[in-house]
Design a protein that fits this description.
With about 550 residues, the protein is α/β, with parallel strands linked by helices. It is about 50% helix and about 10% strand. The chain has three domains: about 240 residues, Rossmann fold, CATH 3.40.50.10490; about 180 residues, 3-Layer(aba) Sandwich (Rossmann fold); about 40 residues, Orthogonal Bundle (Phosphoglucose isomerase, C-terminal domain). The radius of gyration is 26 Å and the shape is globular. The model has no long low-confidence stretch (mean pLDDT about 95).
Length: about 550
């Protein structure tokens, strides 16, 4: 992008258009256009996305989508799907979409079709996951492996945690899944206290097999196992998701039980790969592949649908509208489904690690806001935590509400209340409640004039706060795959508009590098390394407390 984003024709048009739209009331837009909801809703075979409760009109969407065209989004989408090296700082293709390419059409990297190797790993995952689930692959003492412990961090943890919890209804009845990611020893201890070494399979997820958090936790688990069963048990109780065969062998893992993934798969996009082995064992490979099917359906929708009806593009451009023109620096994702409670945490990495950048692909500092802060949690719980700020806070927070129409269980009344709540939240944020409406309501309740005078402003809601509502028939492997792929593509689109590389994570590295210098000092093995006064004092104080 040679021309700076703020100089683009449709950026300038949006800037002028914002001045006209910033004071428009959504309730007025609905009151004057009975077909508004139909105009600003997209329905597919697997998803219903209502984005009508936004501060937009037809011209807004026209300008936003023209900006996407001006930023050559069509070309960028094709470049990603075709394996071009769009991860410019690391000179890599970005092909998580190839992992779920269920049409199996060729995808080339440097002239080589990568689909055969992807299919080979999927077949290996099927063989191994079924061997574990059906007791063919047993532990060292001959017992079935029923405790699955995934050891990873970042994308090697968040994706499997989120997906296995989302699909808990599909777990094999005798399988339990655990996840260790934090370097805090408590994380290891809490899991090890719950499991039996004879029935436990550890999955060590580290591409390089050098990630300090993962390897430290893996070594602790290895010692625990060896203390209980002996050195020869390691090969029967550990597998690796890695590309470093030598380090895997040194650890004691049979290289036949090493599952490969590739440089064209970033960590936060990796649950579709061998990193998803814990998902496949928990829910079965058939269901894992249904999750791939759902993601593939969204991939096709994203690649083939015109922008006017393209859900990831629409959601992305609405995010641009609020982030860059309304100056709103955060948004919330609220799934009204207990199984989806880890989706916001997963999306935090996906969004903020991808687009939390201030250097453009042209190697220049950007002069506009990029990635927003994402937070969220499961409804209705969060209605009793941060929703006070959502409704009456001094800043506006756009929301994505996610709801399955059908319950997971037979307790139907619960789900009806749940659905009523999510629909009510969207309506309340949009319409609000005027002081006049509050006054009339309090009067009907028999409140005195003095009481009304005191309470009316506290009970007034400005409204005009935007939200999207995303509805599935039910949360199953297919719809989960579609949902996560939708957010992946949304984040990608925004990175293209902002002209940043959404696929590196340089900001993760600096603190980790400095930790390596501090560690020997904490242990008393080094002196005199230059730090700031605060860090030096903290090191000395912590060492004194330990004496």
């Amino acid at each position: 992008m040679k021309k700076e984003l703020v100089k683009f024709k449709y950026w300038k048009k949006l800037k002028g258009h914002y001045k006209k739209m910033r004071s428009v009331q959504m309730r007025d837009l609905f009151d004057t256009d009975e077909k508004r909801a139909d105009k600003f809703t997209v329905q597919t075979d697997f998803m219903y996305c209502d984005f009508s409760k936004n501060r937009i009109n037809g011209k807004t969407m026209k300008y936003l989508l023209r900006l996407a065209e001006e930023c050559k989004l069509h070309e960028a989408i094709e470049a990603m799907f075709c394996g071009q090296r769009i991860n410019t700082t690391e000179n890599r293709p970005v092909l998580h979409t190839a992992l779920r390419n269920r049409g199996n059409s060729p995808v080339y990297v440097d002239g080589k079709n990568v689909m055969p190797q992807i299919n080979e790993v999927l077949a290996k995952m099927r063989d191994f996951s079924e061997a574990v689930r059906f007791g063919k692959f047993k532990g060292y003492t001959g017992k079935k492996l029923t405790n699955i412990v995934n050891i990873g961090i970042g994308g090697s943890d968040l994706g499997p945690v989120m997906a296995t919890e989302a699909l808990r209804k599909y777990w094999a009845k005798d399988i339990n899944c655990y996840f260790i990611s934090n370097i805090d020893g408590t994380a290891c201890a809490e899991v090890l206290n719950k499991i039996n070494p004879e029935t436990t399979l550890f999955i060590v997820a580290s591409k390089t097999f050098t990630t300090i958090e993962t390897l430290t936790n893996a070594k602790t688990c290895r010692k625990w196992l060896v203390d209980a069963l002996g050195e020869h048990a390691v090969a029967k109780h550990f597998v690796a998701l890695s590309t470093n065969t030598e380090e895997v062998k040194k650890f004691g893992i049979n290289p036949d039980n090493m599952f490969e993934f590739w440089d064209f798969v970033g960590g936060r996009y990796s649950m579709w790969s061998a990193i998803g082995l814990s998902i496949a064992i928990a829910v079965g490979m058939d269901n894992f592949e249904k999750m791939l099917d759902g993601a593939y359906a969204m991939d096709r929708h994203f690649r083939e649908t015109d922008f006017e009806h393209n859900i990831p593009v629409i959601l992305a451009m609405l995010g641009i509208w609020y982030n860059n023109f309304f100056n709103l620096k955060s948004y919330a994702v609220v799934p009204y489904d207990e199984y989806l409670r880890y989706v916001p945490a997963y999306l935090q990495q996906l969004d903020m690690e991808s687009n939390g950048k201030y250097i453009s692909k042209d190697n220049k500092q950007v002069h506009y806001m990029t990635g927003p802060v994402l937070f969220g949690g499961a409804g209705t719980n969060v209605q009793h935590s941060f929703f006070q700020l959502i409704h009456q806070g001094t800043t506006v927070v756009p929301c994505d509400f996610i709801i399955p129409a059908i319950s997971h269980n037979e307790i139907g009344e619960h789900h009806e209340i749940l659905v009523a709540n999510v629909l009510a939240q969207g309506e309340a944020l949009m319409r609000g409640k005027t002081t006049k409406e509050v006054t009339e309501e309090l009067a009907k309740l028999g409140k005195s004039k003095d009481e009304v005078a005191i309470l009316k402003k506290f009970k007034t809601f400005d409204g005009n706060r935007p939200s999207n509502t995303i509805v599935f028939k039910k949360i199953d492997p297919y719809s989960l795959g579609a949902l996560i792929a939708m957010y992946e593509h949304k984040v990608f689109v925004q990175g293209i508009i902002w002209n940043i590389n959404s696929f590196d994570q340089m900001g993760v590295e600096l603190g980790k590098q400095l930790a390596k210098n501090i560690l020997p000092e904490l242990q008393g093995n080094a002196q005199g390394v230059a730090h700031d006064g605060s860090t030096n004092n903290l090191i000395r104080y912590i060492r004194r407390l330990r004496k």
